[in-house]
């Protein structure tokens, strides 16, 4: 499948990341945006770091580790739904995060996007249940198919209303390798959440 244009990418992402993270087993569909009260305070990711590492060659990510919050998960590939939105990981007992395969691979120039659930219906907590606890300077490791580990450093963690999802800040062009981790958060309403939690991180090193 041909990757979508930047505008199509942002539109699809905006539609599909407004998801219910408290859904039912096997539910992978989008939901209507909630009406949150958190202001859309996510800026374009900071560019002041002089320690960003050189971009890596394309290699599909197979595993994600976030030591500060105990995340160690295989990564599945996520594509597009029939309606043109970005898929989200399936709601299962053994929850896994997913890499959106039309974004750059971790370590390539641009924003690589990884999605995960905060809760998985009757199964309880999701793989990104503690994502909002991350802080600037925390380490994120993406293990790639070519056996390289791309190491990212958290720049910022923001919680924003789903109705005000900052697509340009999340998916807009950047001139260095960056990573976005995204889940639901904030107040819960029915089967869903009103907000999204977004982690912005920058590639800091790579190792075999």
TrEMBL record:
Kindly state which keywords UniProt assigns to this record, in alphabetical order. Hydrolase, Signal
Q: Span of the secretion signal? A: 1-25
Q: Which SUPFAM superfamilies match?
A: Sortase
Name of the featured protein: Class F sortase
Molecular functions per Gene Ontology: hydrolase activity
Q: What is the lineage of its organism?
A: Bacteria, Bacillati, Actinomycetota, Actinomycetes, Kitasatosporales
Where do the segments described as Disordered lie? 22-54
Q: Does the keyword Hydrolase apply?
A: yes
């Amino acid at each position: 499948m041909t990757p979508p244009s930047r505008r199509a990418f942002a539109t699809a992402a905006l539609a599909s990341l407004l998801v219910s993270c408290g859904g039912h087993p096997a539910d992978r569909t989008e939901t209507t945006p909630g009406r949150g009260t958190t202001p859309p305070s996510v800026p374009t990711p900071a560019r002041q770091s002089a320690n960003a590492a050189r971009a890596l060659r394309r290699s599909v990510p197979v595993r994600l580790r976030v030591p500060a919050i105990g995340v160690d998960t295989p990564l599945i590939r996520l594509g597009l739904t029939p309606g043109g939105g970005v898929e989200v990981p399936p709601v299962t007992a053994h929850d896994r995060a997913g890499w959106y395969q039309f974004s750059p691979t971790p370590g390539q120039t641009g924003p690589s996007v990884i999605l995960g659930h905060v809760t998985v219906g009757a199964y309880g907590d999701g793989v990104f249940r503690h994502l909002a606890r991350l802080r600037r300077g925390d380490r994120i490791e993406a293990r790639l198919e070519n056996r390289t580990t791309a190491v990212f450093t958290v720049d910022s963690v923001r919680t924003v209303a789903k109705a005000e999802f900052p697509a340009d800040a999340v998916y807009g062009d950047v001139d260095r390798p960056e990573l976005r981790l995204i889940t639901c958060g904030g107040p819960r309403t029915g089967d869903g959440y009103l907000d999204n939690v977004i982690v912005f991180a920058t590639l800091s090193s790579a190792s075999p």
